[in-house]
Design brief:
By secondary structure, this protein is an alpha/beta fold. The chain has 2 domains: 208 residues, Rossmann fold (3-Layer(aba) Sandwich); 94 residues, Magnesium chelatase subunit I, C-Terminal domain (Helicase, Ruva Protein, domain 3). It is built from 13 helices and 11 strands. The protein has a 5-stranded parallel sheet. The protein has a two-stranded antiparallel sheet with strand order 3-4. The chain has a two-stranded antiparallel ribbon with strand order 6-7. A hairpin with a 2-residue loop joins strand 6 and strand 7. Helix 1 packs across helix 2.
Length: 340
């Protein structure tokens, strides 16, 4: 497995605010994003829009929850993304008997010299694949989710930093509820993006079924970048320009979810901030150094829907966070070009 060489990302200047990415930075990132998407699509056919979403989360420094029925390619997408990004990869199969120490690591006694040393768990990797996260007990889920938020493992009062970049790609099956532990809303909020793959369309599914197809073969996915480059891109893209009218639009969308009568808990400020960060990366992936209203409408569902809690009456009436969010986006007027 080889890593394709690319132009190094300039380091952040010491002290003071960093300059926004240049046109060359944007062009380089767009090409990197395209190459990463092409590499992953070699294993996951016909899901380019979902692949792009996962890459947006990766270059934002956030975490992804893939939620779908078995056999749709959740684990394949997670593993292919990890391989394309380069760096270290660890996989955790969540089961009811998995303990927090099995995830984060623990201290062990070394009989050779009588010392007590920390043995790192599988979270000490650039990309962690958390398969069927809802099959582990709440205590084990919390251990992983705490690391996702703090980027630090604390054992016996001593903190241990996980590598940078650090991305968790988790999967869960929302249909089979036997032996599962539902993720509470507060823990779902730790995931930057939640999305589902769904079944492929006719042509792509036939292509997957065809004898000799390479679909699902992770070994053929080339690494197109490195952890250092990903970390550099994450830092640089945080300074991409977002005009005040767009920020007001994002805020108005969030405020509308809080005032919506079908919603018990609307989008939080942290959720809106996460949306802005995703907008910056998505705009750069399209080759732009600015955000447009269509970007908000494209990313609002995967970033905000899992952070919205409906009333019991709305749920019984058949509404979903996604449908309510769609209604909100139809209601809130986007900024016009002369406002920017």
């Amino acid at each position: 497995m080889t890593t394709t060489a690319s132009r190094p990302v300039p380091p952040e200047p010491p002290g003071g605010p960093a300059a926004p990415p240049t046109e060359r930075d944007i062009a380089d990132f767009r090409e990197l994003h395209r190459r990463a998407g092409d590499a992953i699509e070699g294993a996951v056919h016909g899901k380019r829009a979902i692949i792009d979403l996962v890459l947006v989360a990766t270059f934002t420094g956030g975490h992804v929850l893939l939620e779908d029925v078995p056999g749709t390619g959740k684990t394949t997408l997670a593993r292919a993304t990890a391989q394309a990004m380069g760096g270290t990869v660890r996989r955790i199969q969540f089961t009811p008997d998995l303990l927090p120490g099995d995830v984060t690591g623990t201290t062990v006694f070394d009989p050779r010299d009588g010392a007590v040393r920390f043995r790192p768990g599988p979270v000490f990797a650039n990309v962690v694949l958390a398969d069927e996260i809802n099959r582990a007990a709440a205590k084990t889920q919390s251990a992983l989710l705490e690391v996702m938020e703090e980027r630090t493992v604390t054992v016996d009062g001593q903190g241990h930093r996980v590598p940078e970049p650090f991305v968790v790609i988790a999967t869960q099956n929302p249909i089979d509820l036997d032996g599962t532990y539902r993720l509470p809303e507060a823990q779902l909020d730790r995931f930057l993006i939640r999305t589902a793959l769904g079944y492929p369309d006719v042509e792509h599914e036939i292509d997957v079924l065809r004898p000799g197809s390479h679909a699902g073969e992770i070994a053929d996915v080339a690494a197109v970048t490195s952890p250092d480059e990903v970390a550099g891109r994450i830092q640089r893209l945080r300074h991409l320009h977002v005009a005040d009218p767009l920020l007001r639009y994002v805020r108005e969308v969030g405020d509308a979810t809080r005032k919506e009568p079908r919603v018990r808990l609307g989008a939080s400020t942290r959720g809106l901030r996460a949306l802005v960060r995703c907008l910056q990366v998505y705009a750069a992936a399209q080759g732009r150094h600015y955000v447009i209203p269509n970007d908000v409408q494209r990313l609002a569902r995967p970033v905000l829907a899992h952070r919205i809690v409906l009333t019991r009456e709305a749920i019984l009436a058949g509404h979903t966070p996604e449908s309510v969010l769609d209604d909100v986006l139809d209601t809130v007027e986007p900024p016009q070009p002369d406002q920017g």
